[in-house]
């Protein structure tokens, strides 16, 4: 982990000068402060031996003069020196001693600083992760009391870094939000930049690639501008990881190349630093030689010979060091060139693999679109006819049966959608709608749909709803129905001559006014063996059951898992052979106050009354399916709208030339001529008539093509009746009268 750690000696020296000046004015303070200054100078010039000597004097004289602040400072300096020289074990010993002295002195500022140092040290080892967190939290707590916001901010950064390195992104984000609340004006600019970089890392762990990319690219630009090697290494490394995760291998390679460029720069700077240490050592030896020759001129010759030998040895060592460094650099570049060559070869393979995958994806997309159209088209007829029959007053006695029929058709449509999209749908791909519904009506429709299957297996379904639960909710009743229907259907499938229970029980009320509700589906069937319990949640997997007449897709429990993930919930299973099975889950549902109707929710449900002006309108229905033609025509008739029928695009063009229609409902997939081709021709002689696509094709891949053909809007069938009427009313009411050319 690259730790954002300010130079410890520098900060403590400045602080101690101020703090001790307020508490001691004696000569001892001047003596000890001189040791601090000398140690600081020695450290800056890589003279760690002298720095250690003066730090040791600080400890010795601090004890003698009973000035614990300087004793603390001596141990803290020693800890920093040994860490700098890669002796982390000795560094921890001295840093822990410094913190112990700070606790004895009860000096909050010293305790906070010592705790931060130890937190950074322990964060380097995953085995001491808990100790690191403990020390960071202690430092934060103390600095908050002291209102030292910059130190709190600095400690937050190291804590976030440690959490991310130990795969704790959620905890890291909570700390990051706390850091954002600190007074911005008191925070060091570089610390703000590092916090933004860590925010980008967090977004990357959450696969929020666009936001992460924006953050990391901003940090990379700052690093390039400020020539900050450490910051650039972090930014380009994670940008390369991000582009690789999104299969953007070109940008991944570009950022990886930038990463290696800065890595080489860091390597060069390290070598320069080591050379600088050798140079300083050589210059100090020369200064010492000159001093000794001035004091002892009679021994000049002997000293010169002695120093010449020493100088020769030093120069030889330096030359050897430089030669070894050049050899190391040569092998580094050779290895890098080989690595880049291999990476380019792999990149070509990945590009070819991507092209192959894109070809397969196009074939798959075309297949899904065709299957979707073929399945949804007959469903449009079923749902449309059942809706029309429900509104027929003569069939009022069959309302419950028609409700169950439409409910089953709606569920079948949702199931088809899930099956078609399952291969490209992750948990985030399940979108939950927000519409009002009544829980008792929903459960009644669900249980009604199982009447025949319950009778076949001689089972009884028991519904138990806690009386304290409200009945009206706002949410996604279709998705909830999918979960319950799959679980109940699963129970019926494995149970004969038995009982199935559906139980609803409130657990607690949340702060956001939602209610945490436990749903439980249980049966007294044969149970599920332990070794089969994980297997049943896999796609297209079924286990043997006594009800050999039942055939399923093996997708039920897979769909349940995916939907519940969208609710931030999970399915729990308790079962053993001979004792039945119990599936349960807990979700948060929002109660719905029917006396306060929200406009944003009900606008999509509220059906605007059709004005008398629409009764004079004439609509052309273009569809190759006769049943779907009749369903659409009868729907329009119920709202006093006249319509004509065309079986394909070619017929529609001919009719449009003879009649000035007020609106055209255009199917897309038709024989002879499809809807998009027909629309382009109609637009050649009539640019005013509204044309709406009434189609069952998959919109994800075809929407832009449909709209580019000249079609004004799209209605996806099977459609929601209020939305359908509302859309055609909008286009009919705003259309101005036109005349044929």
From TrEMBL:
Modified positions (4-aspartylphosphate) in chain numbering: 667
Domain of life of the native organism: Bacteria
Signal peptide: 1-21
Enzyme Commission (EC) number: 2.7.13.3
Domain (Histidine kinase) ranges: 370-591
CDD domains referenced in this protein's UniProt entry, alphabetically: HATPase_EvgS-ArcB-TorS-like, HisKA, REC_hyHK_CKI1_RcsC-like
Keywords: ATP-binding, Coiled coil, Membrane, Nucleotide-binding, Phosphoprotein, Signal, Transmembrane, Transmembrane helix, Two-component regulatory system
Domain Response regulatory: 618-732
GO molecular function, one term: ATP binding
Matches recorded under InterPro entries: CheY-like_superfamily (IPR011006), HATPase_C_sf (IPR036890), HATPase_dom (IPR003594), His_kinase_dom (IPR005467), HisK_dim/P_dom (IPR003661), HisK_dim/P_sf (IPR036097), Sig_transdc_His_kin-like_C (IPR004358), Sig_transdc_resp-reg_receiver (IPR001789)
Catalysed reactions listed for this entry: ATP + protein L-histidine = ADP + protein N-phospho-L-histidine
Coiled coil, from the record: 270-304
Residue ranges crossing the lipid bilayer per the database entry: 315-333
Entry-linked PANTHER family: HYBRID SIGNAL TRANSDUCTION HISTIDINE KINASE J
Name this protein carries in UniProt: histidine kinase
């Amino acid at each position: 982990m690259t730790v954002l750690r300010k130079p410890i000696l520098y900060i403590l020296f400045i602080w101690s000068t101020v703090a001790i000046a307020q508490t001691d004015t004696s000569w001892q303070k001047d003596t000890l402060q001189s040791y601090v200054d000398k140690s600081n100078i020695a450290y800056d010039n890589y003279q760690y031996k002298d720095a250690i000597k003066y730090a040791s004097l600080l400890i010795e004289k601090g004890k003698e003069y009973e000035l614990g602040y300087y004793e603390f400072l001596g141990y803290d300096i020693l800890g920093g020196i040994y860490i700098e020289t890669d002796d982390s074990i000795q560094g921890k010993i001295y840093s822990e001693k410094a913190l112990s002295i700070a606790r004895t002195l009860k000096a909050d500022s010293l305790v906070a600083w010592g705790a931060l140092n130890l937190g950074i040290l322990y964060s380097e080892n995953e085995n001491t992760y808990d100790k690191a967190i403990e020390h960071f939290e202690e430092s934060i707590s103390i600095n908050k009391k002291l209102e030292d916001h910059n130190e709190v901010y600095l400690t937050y950064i190291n804590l976030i870094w440690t959490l991310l390195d130990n795969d704790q992104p959620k905890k890291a984000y909570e700390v990051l939000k706390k850091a954002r609340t600190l007074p911005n004006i008191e925070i060091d600019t570089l610390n703000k930049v590092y916090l933004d970089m860590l925010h980008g890392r967090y977004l990357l762990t959450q696969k929020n690639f666009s936001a992460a990319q924006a953050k990391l690219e901003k940090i990379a630009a700052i690093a390039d501008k400020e020539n900050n090697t450490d910051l650039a290494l972090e930014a380009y490394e994670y940008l390369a990881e991000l582009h690789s995760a999104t299969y953007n291998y070109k940008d991944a390679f570009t950022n990886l190349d930038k990463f290696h460029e800065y890595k080489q720069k860091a390597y060069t700077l390290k070598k320069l630093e080591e050379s600088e240490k050798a140079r300083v050592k050589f210059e100090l030896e020369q200064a010492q030689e000159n001093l000794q020759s001035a004091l002892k001129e009679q021994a000049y010759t002997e000293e010169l010979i002695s120093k010449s030998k020493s100088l020769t040895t030093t120069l030889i060592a330096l030359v050897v060091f430089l030669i070894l460094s050049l050899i190391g650099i040569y092998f580094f570049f050779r290895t890098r060139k080989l690595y880049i060559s291999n990476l380019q070869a792999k990149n070509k393979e990945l590009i070819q693999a991507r092209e192959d995958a894109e070809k397969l994806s196009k074939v798959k997309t075309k297949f899904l679109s065709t299957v979707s159209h073929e399945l949804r088209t007959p469903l449009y007829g079923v749902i449309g006819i059942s809706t029309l029959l429900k509104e027929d007053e003569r069939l009022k006695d069959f309302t419950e049966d028609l409700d169950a029929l439409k409910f089953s058709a709606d569920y079948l449509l949702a199931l088809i959608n899930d099956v078609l999209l399952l291969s490209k749908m992750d948990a985030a791909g399940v979108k939950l709608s927000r519409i009002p519904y009544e829980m008792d009506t929903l459960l009644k429709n669900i249980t009604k749909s199982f009447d025949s299957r319950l009778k076949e297996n001689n089972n009884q379904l028991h519904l138990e709803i806690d009386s304290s639960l409200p009945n009206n909710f706002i949410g996604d009743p279709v998705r909830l129905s999918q979960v319950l229907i799959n679980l109940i259907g699963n129970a019926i499938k494995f149970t004969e001559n038995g009982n199935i229970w559906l139980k609803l029980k409130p657990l607690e009320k949340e702060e956001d006014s939602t209610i945490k509700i436990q749903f439980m589906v249980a049966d007294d069937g044969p149970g599920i063996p332990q070794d089969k319990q994980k297997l049943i949640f896999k796609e297209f997997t079924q286990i043997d059951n006594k009800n050999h007449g039942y055939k399923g897709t093996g997708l039920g429990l897979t769909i349940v898992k995916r939907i519940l993930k969208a609710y931030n919930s999970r399915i729990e299973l308790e079962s053993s052979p001979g004792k039945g099975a119990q599936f349960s889950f807990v979700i948060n549902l929002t109660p719905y106050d029917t006396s306060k109707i929200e406009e944003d929710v009900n606008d999509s449900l509220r059906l605007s009354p059709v004005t008398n002006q629409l009764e004079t309108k004439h609509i052309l229905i273009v569809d190759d399916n006769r049943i779907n033609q009749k369903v659409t025509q009868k729907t329009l008739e119920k709202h006093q709208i006249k319509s004509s029928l065309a079986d394909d695009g070619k017929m529609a063009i001919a009719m449009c030339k003879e009649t000035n229609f007020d609106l055209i409902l255009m199917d897309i997939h038709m024989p002879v001529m499809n809807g998009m081709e027909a629309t382009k021709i109609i637009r050649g002689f009539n640019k005013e008539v509204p044309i709406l696509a009434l189609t069952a094709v998959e919109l994800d891949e075809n929407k832009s093509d449909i709209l580019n053909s000249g079609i004004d809007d799209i209605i996806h069938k099977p459609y929601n009746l209020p939305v359908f009427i509302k859309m055609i009313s909008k286009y009919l009411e705003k259309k101005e009268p036109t005349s044929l050319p």
